[in-house]
Amino acid sequence: MGNSAIIQMRHFSKKLFGSNVDFVGSQTVFDVGGNKVRAITKIEFSVKIVLVTHVLRLKEYDK
Predict the structure, then answer these.
(1) Residue 58 CA: distances (Å) to CA of 20, 30, 38, 62
(2) All residues at 6 or more sequence positions from 22 whose CB lies less than 8 Å from its CB, including other chains
(3) What is the residue extent of each domain of the chain?
(4) Can you give the pTM of this predicted structure?
(5) How many whole angstroms separate alpha carbon 22 and alpha carbon 32?
């Protein structure tokens, strides 16, 4: 998947999830649980796979 396609998918994700999603390097971070929990994921847009790599409380994430 080309760089422009990734940018488009990130834009779509931001539009869909709003301020509850951030992009950090190659990972996508979702704010869940009333902004108390972070789900850190790796999304492969080309094959439609979401791999959850970590689920952290806000205190753990902020370290």
Answers:
(1) 13, 11, 7, 6
(2) 28, 29, 31
(3) 3-61
(4) 0.78
(5) 12
